[in-house]
Amino acid sequence: MKKFFLHLDLKNIVIFVFILILSVQYGLQYTNYELGTVNERILLIPYMALFLYFIFTRNYNLRELAIFTVLIIIGVVVVFKTHFTGFLLMVITPIVISTWDWKSVFKSFFYIRSIIFISIILLSLMGVLNLYKTVVIKGNYSTIGYGLGFSHPNRLAYGFVYLLFTYIAFVGKSFNKKDYICITFGLIVCYAITQSRTAILCVVSILLLVTLVKSRFLNKNIKRLVAFLGYVCPPLCVFISIGVPQLMLSSNHNLRILADLIDKLFSGRFKLISRTFKYYDMTLFGGVNSFDILDRIYKYSTVDNGYIRFLYAYGIVGLFVYIVLTLLTVNALSKHGNYLFVSLIIVTSFWGISENVLMSVGFNITVLFWSVLLRRTSTNEKMISTCSLS
């Protein structure tokens, strides 16, 4: 870490400050210190200032310039159409971090977010912040969970899973038995506090994929399978998120029965989405971030699906761009042999079906991987040597 800071010139300081502001903003999300919409728009000024400095001081080729231009145009259009800043941050963040090696990027995110995460929990235990004791409905039964400073137990689980993902990303091939033990212990504690089954599925899935990728048994076949899943999972998850609720609205009785069975596996999430489809239209550029009509009619308006929230917030265009960039990223990472990052994209994709974690770069680690599309060959080679499990 000392060596890292010794090599911070002005451009690297700009990148670090960008990461710092981003980490603080999203580290405080879902707490009493969360920035409001107005403050987020104001914060866009330093983001853009740092971004513009980075752009005008970087050497780039025609290909990179074309990618920069397309991403920024789409991001700006979505902001003007929706008044949401999240999508623009999603497209400029990969550009800003593209000149740093992967380990420095994820190490920075992990340490800063860890400090904030632990601070929030400690403040709640000291009585400064609310413990957010919450009744958590689990299908046919209910239990008690705690947010420990975060507005809902699931929000605390979001933070834990995100930190775990960033940790795995920067540790890479150094991942060992001690990491397995510590993460397993952390998962047990996380579940005891939050009662989040989704967190268990995410953590167990990524540990399994890491184990398979590291294994020498059928290694080539495993990597081909991981690459295949990387290509299939993002569009498949979109299809499931939209398709199952549409089946619930179908006039075909058998299709509705099938959809209801799938819905029960996801604690009724698809039924809530089907209600959303009844009262809200899908548009090219979105603009919907709250579902007041559902709240008035059903007294409940929470839509826990990252793809549907993304679709209504950033529109069909935004979701299409997200999927395309993610598939291009999977292709680039697979070519460079970084199946660890592809594994993280796979798990994040499935995570998005049951939780609203895709709309912001603060919880969606997939967006950070988009920077591989702008990394030059020498950087990608460095990426393989520092982070790959191959």
Main attributes?
mainly alpha, 3% strand, 17 helices, 2 strands, two-stranded antiparallel sheet, disordered C terminus, 390 residues
Describe the structure.
- This protein is mainly alpha-helical and 390 residues long.
- It has one domain (2-236, 305-387).
- 71% of the residues lie in helices and 3% in strands.
- It contains 17 helices and two strands.
- It has helices spanning 2-6, 10-27, 37-57, 62-82, 86-97, 102-125, 153-171, 177-194, 197-214, 219-248, 253-265, 269-279, 292-298, 306-335, 339-354, 366-369, 377-387; strands at residues 133-138, 141-146.
- Strands 1-2 form a two-stranded antiparallel sheet.
- A hairpin with a 2-residue loop joins strand 1 (133-138) and strand 2.
- Helix 10 packs across helix 12.
- The longest helix has 30 residues, at 219-248.
- The radius of gyration is 21 Å and the shape is globular.
- Residues 377-390 have low confidence and may be disordered.
